[in-house]
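Session log. Operator J.P. requested a structure for one protein chain; no other inputs attached. Running the standard single-chain path with token output.
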Amino acid sequence: MTAQLFTPEGMFQPVPYHHVAVGTGTRHVHVAGQIARDGAGNPVATGDLAGQIRQALRNTARGLGGAGASFTDVVRLRFFVTGWSAENRDAIMTAFLAGIDSVTDELGIPRPLPPLSVIGVDYLFEPDVLVEIEAYAVIT
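Structure written below.
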């Protein structure tokens, strides 16, 4: 494994991710923002944040795999999510985590997750896109 994930004592807890990742390899893999589209570019899970996260993570896994990496090599994830507000943050977070949880075993995503950021945005690629995911990995 080329990514060492950990949370030093005294850092904010509980969170479902590690605060720190150290990449011990030499090749850096950057997977561009992945959205909920199938291989032909058709929308998947329109209007369903959890479903879009599942598809976007599957697409991310394909990108990582194409470079010889997997989620165990990921040192950082970045999620851009539309519609995030103080009024609906609990519902959004529930759907967000449900989407991740539903493919964790399938895709070999480590738990706790690698360091990540969730960034609320007004608009993404197209109006039906609710989430975009970027991944950064280090491999040997």
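Operator note: The CA atoms of residues 15 and 112 lie 8 Å apart.
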